[in-house]
Write a structure and sequence with these properties.
It comes from Streptomyces virens. This is XRE family transcriptional regulator. The protein is an alpha+beta fold. The chain is built from six helices and 15 strands.
Length: about 325
Amino acid sequence: MPHATQHADVATAELDSVLRGGPFHVALRAAIAARGLPLQRVQHHLSRHGVKVGVTSLSYWQQGARRPQRPESLRAVRALEEILQLPEESLIRLLVEPDERTGHHRSTGRSHHSLVEASGVLQGLLAEFGTPRDGGLHSLAHHERVRIGPRRELAERESHHIVRAHRDGGDRYVAVHHGDPGSAPERMTVHALENCRTGRVRWHQDTGVLVAELLFDTRLRAGDTFLFRYAVEDGTAGVSHEYLHGTDSPGGQYALQVCFGSGTLPVRCHRFTQQSAAAPRSGHQELALSGRHRSVHLVEPRVRSGYVGIAWDWD
């Protein structure tokens, strides 16, 4: 019996070590071995958590042949932390790899592939509404305020728009929210805050994309301006590492402010741009984080087609 206890202590020490330093597949393999669970049992426990992952995929993950990246896979990793009695975020945080250009870290969940997939899903959702996404509106100014919650999650996004109609009849705006990897759009809530009300809402669970109509209850004439404000209550995913705003047409001023709630602040923040979902990121620039106001921001005097965003690194 003492020999078995000693062996268990060694296994626990090894597990603690790989959970701190990785890599992911070694940590997963050590955690499964420490609990003495065959992969079939692990798969059974995952199904009880409402997550479907094949035994083959689990085997590939612990061999390092594949890495979990899709939203459903990331949900499985979070469930594995509970099933294998591991500290929260201990496996998820190992799915982070250094950015070759800056040496910072970035989440592998928001990959080029996931952005391309989300773009395709978005087109399908927009088609269900049967109206152009811009609703005949040109953006004069757009201010987004993203709130990061106490669990470091994307808790809420509030948008304040100033638009001008470029044709007669515009009476709505179609808002798009793309949650972090592992988010659950069916549990998000859209709040119409000013000069609008919520219409139809659609979502795609695997990509975390949510689309909502905001109805003005008035028809604009060409040249009319309009102000409205709405928010998306999220908080359904894990640790957030970035927020990016995408548009398919140039517009006016865009400002993004990321506010960090109670708890620790990121150690660094930077802006980035991306010409399309499939393009590499560029335009990296360090941003000053206000410790007093617990926020960081960027301002684009004139928005171009593509993506602009802020990423941050936790300690």
